[in-house]
Amino acid sequence: MSERRRFVRIEFHARTELSQGAFIWPVKLLDLSLKGLLIEKPEPWLGNPEEPFMADIHLSNEVHVQMEVRLAHDDHGHLGFVCEHIDLDSIAHLRRLVELNLADHDELERELAALIQI
Length: 118
What we know:
The chain is of the alpha+beta class and 118 residues long. The protein is built from 2 helices and 7 strands, in the order βββββββαα.
């Protein structure tokens, strides 16, 4: 039996774009975690679930979290994505965001340790 690690999801709203090839969709970010994000499904949706996507989350004019993601689920108008790759600057910004939204520092450390093991 494999254990599935659940990461704390943070309800967060920021200007976000999802792209794949020549397609770019401005999307509504619903929540994010150290391992992925949930968005409202854009219309029209022409994304290929077999290919990777790039997510660009604008925390400010100068600060972005960029990650390569793959579609994990498409349910009831929401798309859930799992992070496949994230650069060091982006993970540092995301870690700080999670840290500010988690009251429990030990939980953040557990999540970072689980992320490294994946």
